[in-house]
Structure formats: structure tokens, C-alpha cells
Amino acid sequence: MTILDDKRVLGAALSLAPADLQVDRRRLAAGPRASWASTQPFRVGTRAAEHPVAETDHDGWRTVARSYLIRVLCSDVVTSTAVVLSVLLLAHGARGRRGLWPIAVALVFLAFLVAFGGYDRRSVGDGPEEFRAVMRAGVGAVAAVGLTSVAVAWDMPRELVGGTILTIVPTVAVGRYALRRNLHRRRARGEAMSRTLVVGDALSVHQVVTDLRAAPHHGYQIVGLCLPAVTDKPTQDAVPVLGALADIPQVAFDHHIDVVIVTGSQLAGEALRRLSWALGRSGAALVVAPGLVEVLGPRIQLRPTAGLTLLEVETSSPRSRRLAKAALDRTIGACLLAAALPVIAGSAVAVAVTSPGVPFYRQRRIGIDGREFTMWKLRSMYQDADARRALLLEHSDRDGLMFKMHDDPRVTPVGRVLRRYSLDELPQLWNVLRGDMSLVGPRPPLPEEVDAYRDAVNRRLRVRPGLTGLWQVSGRADLSWEESIRLDLRYVDNWSVTMDLFILWKTFRVVLRGAGAY
């Protein structure tokens, strides 16, 4: 079967007339390795004729992925070897069978990393699955080595095995994170991207294109669109319409498409099935955007039933996850508070010496399910700050309900330093230990802000407010009100312990830069 046959079958599934299924047979006969510069557009006299066939992108992800995976593998091997040598050195050159345990742990860890998809091209370089594979490989390595030692009755040196795995997991994760940051910088310049064709109705396509263009680090380069008919007008003039829905296989073949994203309801059922058959000949991946808003991977589960592919969306967090989050908050919160006590004490002295009033400031905030609590901070403003707030509302630099000013006259000189590095928020670790707040969550709102909430914004109160959150690592006070709400709701709907750890990791980097804090 040729691409022409695929096109006819797809057109039949879409109930299109034969006249809508024209194909330039000369290009089909030329083969995939032909020089496309001299060929004619696949649909003469239509919008597609305005857009010549694209040249192959030699810096695209399909080309770069292999070398990137090799660099990831080399990084894992080098860091694992360094960890093993360090452990053996600290163990004063453990000899005999004891010296083999760290080596065995490293080898088993790398084997599990392969088994858990740590080198899958679809997940490496983007998304949390890569780091989940590292964590699972660490747990699997400990379990495998421990069970083996019991089975063969070997005395396992727990300090060597524990030291190796507790060091190798974060070290490998840091190495991969560094490679990922470099990849994201390249993608910001338009390199290492997957050539992407978005197909569906104009409105659905517009939403997908807008979201993907706002996040280039995911690696999707929008080459063009396919709409129900070539005469349809796109909502974004900057993206060319390369054909109708029946032309998708031909367009993917001509423009060297890596990914075809289907959105909306125009393609479904038998037509979508036949499209997957047709795209198999061009090597393009088929991705379906189901129209779910702000629903991340952990909440979705595939349920193949009666020949159907059903998507189950998690509507509430399981009790085990809530308990794990509470344990994480108490454990890490206690450690951070103990480490921060000298900084809090020094900052409190600086506040008390440089401005009149007590060094600590308490304020009523709204927590989970609308419960009020007292939030503690280091005082960064003069004593009459609350009384002067009403006079400054019209000078707010933020839209919506949140009040912020770049040059707030109520902030003391010491307070500016504390705010820049978020040191004024360290006393909130006490709120975390008390259970009023969480380490990660939405920003704790004021009572008057909650009184003005409308519709979906109230969902922010379904989880405990956080010391940090997606808003903190995505722009802080520079975000608009709508962007802040969108990020808070995304967290409320999709939070997990893994996401919390990732946000905490990014928070340290953001705080050190001091970006978006005032």
C-alpha cells in the first residue's frame, strides 16, 4: 500500500469527496530520499501551494536524540564510577568480597535504570519520568542486592551498600539535570526540536499551538497545521495551513514531520486508527491531545476495555499520598528550621536594631478548607504598614486581588534584603511543623482576598498553603494574577510528593538568584 492508498482510505474514513484527495503522484514515486526542492506542492491551486516543501532539519531532535542519549549514558557511567571510587576510598580501600559490593550496586543500578526506561528517547530530556526512573532504579538496586545477599548467605556490608546507593542516586540525577538544562537552552534557540504538525479544528489547534509555543523546552517546533478544509482560516496567521485533514500523511511525508498532534473532535474512531497506519510509513509519531485541561500524567490511567481506550482521571488524592506529604513536611521542615535558626536569630536582631517595633510579624491567613491561622514572618516593613496599605492600593504593580509594589515605601532597608532572598519567610517553617502550612502549595491568601474569590479560584483552598510553590519557581511576584491562579490550580489538581521535591529543588536556585522578589 502506498501513501496514495493511505490517503484514499483516510479520506473515506473522513467521508471526504474524491476530489478532495488529490495527490502529486510524481513526488510519491520519487521516494523519501528524493530532493524535494524541485517538486510541486501536493495540492495545486490551494493554500498548500503557498508553502514549499521544507528542508530536513539536521539539528532536529530525531538527529540529536542519539548523541544526547550517549551523553546521558556517559554521564551516568562516569558519576557511578566516581561514587564507587569515593566509597571505597572512604572505606579505606575495602578489600576482598567487601570491595565488590559497591561495584555490584552500581552495575545493578545501571541495569535497573535501563529496565525502568531511563534511556527512553520519549522521556529523556523532558518531564519527570526520567527522574522517576532514577529513583526506581535506586530502590530496585537495593532490593536486588539485599535479596541476593540473603539467598547466597553473604554478609552484606550495609554501610557500603547504603552509602553507595544514597550517593549514586542524587549524583546521577544532578548529572542528568545539568544535561537537561543545556538541552533546554538549545531548544530556546530553536535547536534539538521535533518538527510538529498540529491537526484538528481551528479553535482546538489554536490552543495547542499557543501552549506549545509558550514552552519551547518541551521540544515541539510547530511547522504547520492541517484543518478540516484547506480553505479554513487559522486563528494564528504566523502558522501556515499545509493541507486538509485528508492530506495529513502526505504533509507529514513531504515536510519531514516528527510528531503529528491530533486535537479536537474532527479525527476520532476509525479515522484516527487509519491515520496511525498511514503515519507509520513516514516514521512520524502520533500524539492525541484529549482536551483535558491542566491534568498531568500521574492523574491519568489508561483502561483498555472492550476494544476501547478509556482514560481514567484521578479526582481525589489517595490517603497514602496525603500521609507521605505530611511526613515529608514534618521531616524536611524540622531539618530546615533547625538549620535556619541562626539565620532567623541574626535577621531578627538586624530588624530590631534598624527599625522600631518587634522583629516578628504575625498575620491572619486562610488555610485548607477556609480555616484561619496565624502566619509568622520576620518584619520587613515599618510598624504602620497595614494602616498605609489602603492608601497605596491604587499604586499596586499587580493586577487582580494581590497587592504588590516594586518600590513599596513601607519596606525597611533591611526588609528589602530579607525579601530579596525570602529570608523573611523562614519563620513560616514553624507553621509547617504545626500543620497550618505545607512546604509546597498555593500562596496563603488574606481573608479579604478569599472573600473576593469567584468560581474555580476557591479550589486553591483544597490543599494547605505552601512556603513555596509553582508560583515561586515560575516568576514569583512578576506573574500576573491569572498566571498565579493558573499555576496554583495546576498544583492543587496534580500535586504529588515527586512534584514537591522537584519544586523544593528549584526553589533554592530561584531564591539564590533573587528574581521576582520585592
Structure in words:
It contains 17 helices and eleven strands. It has helices at residues 3-13, 25-30, 61-90, 97-115, 129-151, 158-188, 202-213, 248-254, 270-279, 319-354, 385-392, 413-420, 428-434, 447-451, 470-473, 481-494, 497-513, and strands spanning 194-199, 220-227, 241-244, 259-262, 285-288, 300-305, 308-313, 360-366, 372-378, 438-440, 466-468. It has a five-stranded parallel beta sheet with strand order 3-2-1-4-5, with helices on both faces. β8 and β9 form a beta hairpin. α1 (3-13) packs antiparallel against α9 (270-279) and α3 (61-90) packs antiparallel against α6 (158-188).
Draw up the topology in text:
Elements: H1 3-13, H2 25-30, H3 61-90, H4 97-115, H5 129-151, H6 158-188, E1 194-199, H7 202-213, E2 220-227, E3 241-244, H8 248-254, E4 259-262, H9 270-279, E5 285-288, E6 300-305, E7 308-313, H10 319-354, E8 360-366, E9 372-378, H11 385-392, H12 413-420, H13 428-434, E10 438-440, H14 447-451, E11 466-468, H15 470-473, H16 481-494, H17 497-513
Parallel strand pairs: 1-2, 1-4, 2-3, 4-5, 10-11
Antiparallel strand pairs: 6-7, 8-9
Unreliable segments of 5+ consecutive residues: 15-50
Distance between the termini: 64 Å
Strand order of the largest sheet: 3-2-1-4-5
- State the assembly state of the protein chains: single chain
**Shape, per Cα inertia axes:** globular
Percent in strands: 5-15%
Q: What is the SS-derived class? A: alpha/beta
In total, the number of strands is: 11
- Round the Cα radius of gyration to an integer and report it: 28 Å
Number of helices: 17
